[in-house]
Amino acid sequence: MGKKIRFFLALAVCMAAFTSMTASAATEIICASTTSTENSGLFNHILPIFEKKTGIKVKVVARGTGAAIEMGKRGDADVAFVHAKEQELKAVEERFFINRSDVMYNDFVIIGPSDDPAKVKGIKSTVEAFRKISTVSQFVSRGDNSGTHTKELSIWKKAGIEPKGQKWYLEVGQGMEKTQRIANEKRAYALTDRGTWLATKDKDKLEMVIVHEGDPTLFNQYGIMAVNPEKHKHVNYKEAMEFVNWMISKEGQQAIAAFKDSNGNALFIPNAK
Fold it and tell me: Binning pLDDT at 50, 70 and 90, where does residue 58 land?
């Protein structure tokens, strides 16, 4: 009789441990996101608020937007928070993701040496700025299929220039912050998002300046979407949707609006509908 009691007690302990592990696993989601949200410090600002409210932990895997979307397509993430709207909508159309929403925006800027050897300051057209840079200076590209890289390639296409393989064009395959550092070291130009620039330029002691901004084509929209559980049954869809809904809620949008650099500049502007 004693052996039976011990057996059932051991079984109960094992079942309780299994239940605890299952519950624990369900309270963590994986968010595949672009490097700009990570480099800027946005997640360090907003995630503690969300996690305290819901008890759901968010593990961020920062990649270029293309790689982040592919993570979701494979079922290696529960939610994607990225910035290449055409790619996002295509992935939704293909049913890899569902419930996509706009979350926030900022803009892209061109940074370069303070003496601006390509003389692009004052040029209103980003296409013209790219053309001038290609004739007299070096350009550092992320080269990683990120949202920033996608935007950059679209501008070269409009300019009628194929940069790949050119001596003045350097693809580094790195995130935004590292790309900025390389451009700084080489006294070259680069396309970056304003959020990463504001958050890192002083920390990294960059000697670059913004030489071009304000063209409507540099608008940079961020979106969030959940991985479709019909494609991958193992994803934590319920918890992912709690995160999606919080990001576009009044509280989530206020948290994004409150995120500013040391000079009080907003790094992202909330615009969920």
Answer: very high
Same domain, 135 and 179: yes
DSSP 3-state assignment of 24?
A: helix
Structural domains counted in the chain: 2
* pLDDT above 80 for 157: yes
> In angstroms, rounded to a whole number, what is the distance separating the alpha carbons of residues 143 and 118?
22
> 273 falls in which pLDDT band (50, 70, 90)?
confident
Let me know how long the chain is.
Answer: 273
Between CA 186 and CA 207 the distance in angstroms is: 11
DSSP-assigned letters across all residues of 144-164: SS-HHHHHHHHHHHHHT---T
Same-domain pairing of 138 and 228 = no
**Per-residue pLDDT, 2:** 52
Whether 99 shows a pLDDT value over 80: the answer reads yes
What whole-number distance in Å separates Cα of residue 173 and Cα of residue 13? 49
Within this chain, do residues 91 and 43 fall inside the same structural domain, yes or no? yes
On whether both 245 and 163 belong to a single domain, the answer is: no
**48 to each of 4, 54, 56, 252, 261, how far by Cα in Å?**
46, 10, 10, 12, 18
Same domain, 226 and 98: yes
Instruction: Output the average pLDDT for the chain.
Output: 91
Question: Cβ–Cβ contacts within 10 Å for residue 87, how many?
Answer: 18
Once rounded to an integer, what is the mean pLDDT over residues 162-179?
96
Range of the domain at 45: 2-106+221-270
Q: Letter for the amino acid at 21?
A: M
Averaged pLDDT for residues 77-83: 98
Question: Do 87 and 128 share a domain, yes or no?
Answer: no
Residue 141 shares a structural domain with residue 209: yes
CATH of the domain at 246: 3.40.190.10
